[in-house]
């Protein structure tokens, strides 16, 4: 599992792997074993995690991967259209390179027997469609990416 965390305003890419009943956490070129046998206390408040260990408190902030990478890309965060809920794609009404207008239906998804039309939030061009008919996805998964239409 890969994630981005902030600690004291610095951002760290973190990779964790299972190691028995604990985890091996890799940060840069270092590796740490993390488990319940360390006597750490952990409090979670939304995307903020407070860890108390050996008399010291460390505060970490989790960054949602989709939002993080969208905000650090060349385009704006709203250029990535994400899934509002987990589901399955039942129709794709667009393709890469197609010009679209605000309100156009790009995809139709189904979640808990409810169909939802995913509409374009603005005028532009579809850069990529990240899903196909029949494909399942999680909440916040990228569905399509837009770019501004050239004048």
Fold and architecture overview:
- It is a single chain.
- By secondary structure, the protein is mainly β.
- It has two domains: 2-63, Glycoprotein, Type 4 Pilin, CATH 3.30.700; 74-147, RNA polymerase II/Efflux pump adaptor protein, barrel-sandwich hybrid domain (OB fold (Dihydrolipoamide Acetyltransferase, E2P), Beta Barrel), CATH 2.40.50.
- Helices cover 5% and strands 56% of the residues.
- The chain is built from one helix and 15 strands, in the order E-E-E-E-E-E-E-H-E-E-E-E-E-E-E-E.
- A seven-stranded antiparallel sheet has the order 4-3-2-1-7-6-5. The protein has a four-stranded antiparallel sheet with strand order 8-15-13-10, with no helix packed on it. A four-stranded antiparallel sheet has the order 12-11-9-14, with no helix packed on it.
- A hairpin with a 2-residue loop joins strand 2 and strand 3.
- The protein is elongated, with a radius of gyration of 20 Å.
């Amino acid at each position: 599992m890969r994630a981005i965390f902030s600690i004291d305003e610095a951002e760290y890419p973190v990779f964790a792997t299972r190691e028995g009943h604990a985890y091996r956490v890799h940060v840069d070129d270092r590796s740490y074993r993390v488990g319940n046998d360390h006597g750490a206390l952990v409090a979670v408040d939304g995307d903020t995690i407070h860890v108390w260990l050996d008399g010291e408190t460390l505060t970490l902030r989790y960054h949602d991967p989709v939002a993080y990478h969208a905000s650090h890309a060349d385009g704006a965060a709203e250029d990535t259209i994400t899934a509002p809920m987990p589901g399955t794609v039942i129709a794709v009404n667009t393709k890469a390179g197609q010009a679209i207008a605000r309100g156009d239906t790009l995809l139709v998804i189904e979640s808990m027997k409810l169909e939802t039309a995913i509409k374009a939030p603005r005028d532009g061009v579809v850069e990529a469609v990240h899903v196909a008919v029949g494909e399942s996805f999680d909440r916040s998964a990228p569905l399509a990416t837009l770019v501004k239409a050239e004048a």
